[in-house]
Design a protein that fits this description.
heterodimer; A: about 400 residues; mainly alpha; 18 helices; elongated; B: about 120 residues; alpha+beta; four-stranded antiparallel sheet; two-stranded antiparallel ribbon; 6 strands; RNA_pol_sigma_r3/r4-like (chain A); DNA-binding transcription factor activity (chain A); RNA_pol_sigma70_r2 (chain A); RNA_pol_sigma_r2 (chain A); RNA polymerase subunit sigma (chain A)
């Protein structure tokens, strides 16, 4: 790996490890301190490596520096206490405890941080932001880019979230066994949203979007590697992520524009990811609990076969029927209606589509535009134009414009 | 928004359907419920088995199943959210059990705490 690629790469993989271990070590009160020390460690690498050359084992170098910085901090904090609070002089000199950057402690700390960050006391958006910062090593700029927001807002959001964690005295530890199922639900929601943020994000930066997906999968893997959290629902979520991720290479054309599912080149789909997803889905079928992830993963599995068969759409429709009973979402409602049109035809699906009550949603109008084609092209045009107006991204607008242009004029 | 129970009444619970018929009926019911759920108006629901049913009478006598003595039997119910009984009835109109002659769907508003005090 070339020098200029080495540091960003290490930053991605090592920043979060160092931060998680230090956080665990210092406690939730000192999240910023952990981030600062990890940040300073990389700053030192950026300042020295270009001149002296990268060390032989860059990760080990970073760990030593981070440990030393943490030790120095303890020493400084100790001196500070002595100066301003002389009465503390009598207390025993506690030596700075050793920071443990072993693989085991790194993954334990990251898993515990994941539970802490996904504590129900902080709003979902802030959970994702914190996870990106602390567990995925994303910079504030990158998070702002991913959320289509600005640096200031993200900083504020993270600041409030950290304050909340402190105020609620959230411990960096695994929840008690009895509390795991419920806390795990919140963790899975965050990972699911994090993944979707990458997969469906409106951000233009394709690289960042893919990294969001990769990071969500890495964190889900962390859960699967621990027997306490290797549950059917986690396996189902992982299967879902694998199936979707298999299409990432086919979703972009040469110019970076979005390629719709039906226009994708199947030969670009990642077959080994699809096979991996099938293994996770199989593992997810142990036990009796049926989570929304099970249903979504099974739907995604049907989509790994591009050929349209009555059996495929029949199954997808039934799966969406069940998914909506478990958990309503506008996306599921729209997809269910699309599946209905595939099974029963546009004319049968139209009245159901009209009842969805999602008139502010561009995808709702895009669906109606699709269903009205050949039945009432005037209405089709009207809804495609509505969708065009409501849609927020250029690739979407381009796709809709093409549909408008191809609409037969009657 | 109020909650309404849609109660499926079958004229004759003893009619035996073939597995194929059952599957078609199940799918139609799931499509019907899916359509309500897609409007975010489905709350919950349950099908009721005709087999292994009991009726407990006034004198605590227990008989097997409601059939024979009661003309109509319950086949299941769902609970929906709706603005009015009319809207709830409009959901009921599409219920597949209405395909069976003599079957009905009863629409009843569910009592809430505030209704109890008036």
């Amino acid at each position: 790996m070339r020098q200029q690629e080495l540091i960003p790469h290490l930053f991605r993989t090592e920043f979060s490890k160092i931060t998680a271990v230090l956080c665990k070590h210092f406690g939730i009160d000192h999240i910023e301190l952990a981030e600062d020390i990890a940040g300073e460690t990389f700053l030192l690498a950026m300042e020295t490596w270009p001149y002296k050359g990268a060390p032989e084992n860059p990760s080990a170098w970073l760990y030593v520096v981070a440990k030393n910085k943490a030790k120095n901090y303890f020493a400084r904090a100790h001196m500070f206490r002595e100066k301003i609070m002389p009465e503390l002089k009598q207390t025993n000199d506690t030596p700075a405890p050793e920071i443990d950057l072993s693989d085991k402690n790194i993954s334990d700390s990251q898993l515990q941080m994941l539970f802490a960050v996904c504590h129900p006391c902080i709003p979902a958006e802030a959970q994702i932001g914190l996870a990106l910062r602390i567990l995925c090593g994303f910079g504030i700029d990158e998070i702002a880019n991913a959320f289509l927001s600005n640096k200031e807002n993200i900083n504020k959001r993270l600041f409030r979230a950290r304050e909340k964690l402190r105020a609620e005295k959230v411990a960096i530890e695994m929840p008690e066994a009895a509390a795991i199922p419920q806390r795990l639900n919140a963790v899975l929601t965050t990972l699911y949203l994090l993944y979707n943020e990458g997969y469906y994000s409106e951000s233009q930066d394709a690289v960042i979007r893919e990294e969001l997906c990769v990071e969500a999968m890495r964190l889900t893997k962390l859960l699967l590697d621990n027997p306490l959290t290797n549950t059917p629902a986690v396996n189902a979520l992982m299967a879902l992520m694998c199936f979707h991720a298999s299409r990432l290479p086919a979703r972009k054309d040469k110019n970076g524009a979005l390629v719709l599912y039906q226009d994708q080149d199947e030969s670009l789909w990642n077959r080994s990811l699809i096979a991996e997803g099938a293994c996770y889905l199989h593992a997810a079928s142990q036990g009796t609990a049926l989570s929304p992830y099970h249903l979504e993963a099974t739907i995604a599995w049907w989509h790994t076969n591009k050929e349209d068969t009555p059996e495929k759409w029949d199954n997808i429709l039934q799966l969406y029927n069940r998914l909506l009973q478990l958990q309503y979402s506008p996306v599921a409602a729209l997809n269910r209606t699309f599946a209905l049109s595939k099974v029963k035809g546009n004319a049968a699906a139209l009245p159901e589509a009209e009842k969805l009550g999602l008139s502010g949603n561009p995808y709702y109008h895009a669906l109606l535009g699709e269903l009205y084609q050949g039945i009432d092209n005037q209405q089709a045009l009207h809804h495609l134009q509505q969708a065009w107006h409501l849609s927020k991204t250029l690739p979407e607008k381009q796709t809709l414009q093409q549909k408008i242009d191809h609409l037969p004029t009657t | 928004m109020d909650e309404f129970m849609l109660i499926f009444r079958h004229e004759d619970g003893k009619k035996i359907a073939s597995p194929e018929q059952m599957q078609i009926w199940m799918k139609a019911t799931m499509d019907w419920i899916g359509g309500i759920a897609a409007q975010n108006k489905y709350v919950l629901g349950n099908g009721l088995l005709f087999d292994d049913a009991r009726v407990v009478h006034h004198n605590k006598m227990v008989t097997n199943g409601p059939f024979g003595e009661i003309k109509e039997t319950l086949g299941g119910y769902i609970i929906v959210r709706a603005e009015s009984a009319d809207e709830a009835a409009s959901f009921a109109k599409d219920c597949p059990i209405l395909g069976g002659e003599g079957n009905t769907v009863e629409v009843r508003k569910i009592i809430r705490e505030k209704d109890m005090h008036c």
